[in-house]
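COMPLEX REQUEST
Ligand: adenosine-5'-triphosphate
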Amino acid sequence: MSSVTKVVLLACGSFNPITNMHLRMFELARDALNRTGRYNVIAGIISPVCDAYGKKELVPTKHRCAMISLALKTAKWIRLDTWECEQPLWTETARVLSHFRVELENQMNTSITETPNKKRRKNRKIDEEIDRGPCPNHHDNDQVSLKLLCGGDLLESFGTPGLWKDEDIEDIVRNYGLVCITRGGTDPKKFIYESDVLSKYQENIFIVTEWITNEISATKIRRAMRRGESVKYLLQDSVIDYIRENQLYGIPDNKYLDYTLPSPDQPNIMPMDCLEDVPNDTHPIDLEIDINDSYKKNKQIENLTRTCNIPRCISNPRSSPGPKICQNVEIEPTLSPKHLSFDETSNPASPGKHLGNLDMVGPSSTRKAADISTSNSPKRMLDGEEDETYHVGSPKHVPCMTDLGSLVRRVRNVRVGSTKETRVFAFTTETCV
Ligand SMILES: Nc1ncnc2c1ncn2[C@@H]1O[C@H](COP(=O)(O)OP(=O)(O)OP(=O)(O)O)[C@@H](O)[C@H]1O
Ligand SMILES: NC(=O)c1ccc[n+]([C@@H]2O[C@H](COP(=O)(O)O)[C@@H](O)[C@H]2O)c1
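STATUS: Structure written out below.
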């Protein structure tokens, strides 16, 4: 009678932040292994890399672990393990596997020979983890196989010269085994074919094809957040909330992270069709906004929206009650010191003129002020003149749906300055976000 091998899946990586695909990897692997009838996946472990790994944009362990814990709230059979990320130095993956194998063996042995209390003292940390979810070998003495769970890119990184020791690669595929989830741009079968050592142990390597292909990557998610784009449905909501609350990944002004979806019966939500009600020739506004003083900035923005006479607008659902018209309108989420860079060569001697280039990072429909310096005269903006060249290439409005609903920005010209001398024009097109 063929026996069924119990399997624990270990995923190592940055988890910066943990994405829905990281969670899905476990589901895909468990399905595939269980389907063979030879394996029974009983637990999953996520082991985030330590800060000393030093990867670009890696946020501190404390945050990555907190996000993993939040994301795992609904994943009953997967748990976070902090051993690796608590190490002062980076630990090679083969050592991490070896650590967990010893831990699993300890648990097996202690469960046979010791009382639960003794075991608890000896392996207190592991047991704390056990208490939070199912754990291998807790109830029986069967052999458990520990396997490294990874994506196709990690497998192919075996081929990067100097990154992995040959003996580590052999140790991993020979003594543990790999479960590899296909990922866009990788071809694990071909990679195995081309590697002598991987071919030798290929019965220990499981390629799981993800047919519902996706390109979720933590790098792309960080990029999207930096650019003020929505990442909803790519990360768990709780993780998005955590990122917002802790201002991670340089996204202090990301409107998508800052709002909750207003309820449909909220009276001042602007439907898409009201775009037609908005007059097309809003007069440009000349206002100086002090970006270093956020209270003043918000007040000024509020006044600005009043002056604009925006007919209807979406309001921040978390804002204080009060007159609804034009309050709390998010005009330009990119107007923050973080996202503004001033051209040092600007001429402070001519206040009121366009003195430098303002680089704005924001929704694609927002024009870069750098472009404006060539296509739109600052004098005209100051004088409130319309510049036809501006209208030609710029979207009047680009209808788009977001989880916020929709919002028309009516602000044309906003003067933004960090000091009196460094005045720069920010130029927002009429945009639907
Ligand atoms: N979309 C994906 N498909 C398959 N595997 C993935 C996917 N995203 C991540 N993985 C795998 O998850 C593990 C941990 O990945 P990691 O934390 O490095 O995520 P990442 O998205 O690759 O991050 P980054 O973009 O910051 O390099 C790796 O084995 C990686 O291959
Ligand atoms: N020689 C090694 O053991 C080795 C080399 C490169 C990456 N890794 C691991 O692979 C994972 C890859 O993570 P990233 O894709 O986020 O860099 C990390 O857990 C890292 O520790 C291990």
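REMARKS: DSSP finds 17 helices and nine strands in the chain. The first helix runs from residue 20 to 35.
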